[in-house]
Structure formats: C-alpha cells, structure tokens
Write a structure and sequence with these properties.
The chain is of the alpha+beta class. It has 5 helices and 6 strands. Strands 1, 2, 3, 4, 5 and 6 form a 6-stranded antiparallel beta sheet that branches. Helix 2 runs parallel beside helix 3 and helix 3 packs parallel to helix 5. The chain is rod-shaped, with a radius of gyration of 40 Å.
Length: 262
C-alpha cells in the first residue's frame, strides 16, 4: 500500500449541506462516504468524523470556465481526484460523479482493518459514493416538488382571488350608485347645478373579466375609497340638516302665529 500524503489543515464548515452514506464493513475495513454540493474536497477531508481514517479519498466535479462554440453541446466540467494512498481509488470515485452528472465534492473514508481486500474495495468505495449522492438527488427532487406544489397553490390562490374580485367589483359599483343617489337626496335643497355635479354619471364600467389581478386589486381599493368618501359626505350632510332643523321649525312657528293674527 503506497504511503499517505500529508494533508494541510483546512477550515471546517459545519453548516454546509452534506449527505452521508451508511457504512460498509468488510473484513474489519470500514468505508463511508460524504458528499457536498458546495464544499471543496479539502474541506470534506477536514471533517472531524473522518480525521482518523486511514485513507480519505476524494473527487470533485465543477463547471468549467471553458465554453463550447456550439450552444447545444453539454457544458464542460473540471474533474479532480485524490487517492490519498489508495491507488486508483480517486479515479473510481470521480467516475461516480460523472456517471450521475453530479456537481460538487465527495469523500470516501476507509479505515483499514489489517486485511488486504483486493479489487472489491473499489466496489465498496463506489457503492458508498452512490448512496451519498442518491440521498442528495432525492432531497433535490423533493425540494423541486415542494416548490412546484407551492407555485401551483399560489397560482390557484391568485385565480380564486381574481374570480372573487370579478364578482365583488360590480357589487361595489352598485353600492356607489345607491350611495350617490342618497347623497343627492341629502343635498336636495342645494342648487340644481351642484346637484347635477354630485350625481354625475360614473365612468363606463370596465369588463372586469378581461383584467389582470393587479388591476382588479387597484380597482377594488379605488372603489372602497370612493364608498368611504361618499359615506363621509352623507354624514356631513346629516349633521348640517340636524343643525338647521330647529331654525326651520322656529321660522315655521312664527309664520303660523303671524298668519293666525292676521
């Protein structure tokens, strides 16, 4: 067995996403894999759970800065690997990343048990790597499924909201029409020109079913503001009428007295 290469210390990143395989034990040798889509190979080698391993075999596969002249071709990748004393193991590990079209870094740690395993050790290395990568792929698929489901729910909610506004806005228009008529009645004693101004015909009602959600929401806010303004004007008119009512009654009483005296 070739001697191990000394590793330089690398910062440990405990919060990065990692995916672990289960361990494979064969004649006292133990193998386990750790994959990360974001950490480097050296960062994986610095993890405390593999610090005492006999071999820390790594491989990385990242998008290359090199670009194809033909856009339809597959992107290029840069692949690196390290045997860490386990001859040819790094290349076998890199082949797993390529076969699964995975990006990121992976480490397979081996704790040597004192018995030479022969070629079967490469199968253990690749099987551990496939398991760790499959956990990542399954997690990614679940996340994509959740995002798609959330997007579908959002689309359904927006369509329901739009249908509600298409139904509600004509009701708002009718309420505005009724309230305008009531306001005119409150101002029945005002000049005809002012009266006509207050009952000016509303703008042409749009075809709500053809409008997007954002426009419908803006119209809803505008209708609510109009209703609020008209109600405030009606309240003011009622206050004025209540204040004028005693004066009108007093004038009517004086007129009646004068008529009786005559």
């Amino acid at each position: 067995m070739s001697p191990k290469r000394a590793l330089s210390p690398t910062p440990f990143h405990p919060s990065a996403a990692i995916y672990r395989s289960s361990s494979i034990t064969d004649r006292s040798s133990r193998f386990t894999a750790i994959y990360s889509p974001s950490l480097t190979a050296k960062q994986l080698q610095s993890r405390p759970e593999v610090s005492d391993a006999t071999h820390r075999i790594t491989a990385s596969r990242t998008p290359s800065t090199q670009r194809s002249l033909t856009p339809s071709q597959q992107p290029f990748y840069t692949t690196t690997h390290s045997d860490d004393g386990e001859k040819y193991a790094g290349k076998a590990l890199a082949s797993v990343l390529s076969d699964l079209n995975a990006e990121g870094s992976i480490i397979v740690a081996r704790w040597y048990g004192g018995i030479m395993l022969g070629p079967v050790r490469f199968e253990h290395i690749k099987n551990c790597a496939r398991e760790a990568l499959s956990k990542h792929l399954n997690s990614t698929q679940q996340q994509q499924s959740q995002v798609k489901k959330a997007r579908t729910v959002t689309d359904d909610d927006e369509e329901k909201r739009r249908a509600d506004l298409i139904r509600v806005l004509p009701e708002r228009d009718r309420s505005i029409s009724v309230l305008r008529g009531l306001l005119v009645e409150k101002h029945a004693t005002e000049s005809s020109s002012l009266k006509e101004e207050k009952v000016a015909s509303p703008a042409k009602v749009p075809e709500y079913s053809k409008l997007p959600l954002k426009t419908l929401e803006n119209l809803e806010r505008a209708r609510d503001a109009t209703i609020g303004w008209i109600l405030a004007q009606i309240e003011k008119a009622e206050i004025v009428q209540q204040a004028e009512a005693p004066q009108e009654a007093e004038v009517a009483e004086k007129t009646k007295v004068a008529s009786d005296a005559g």
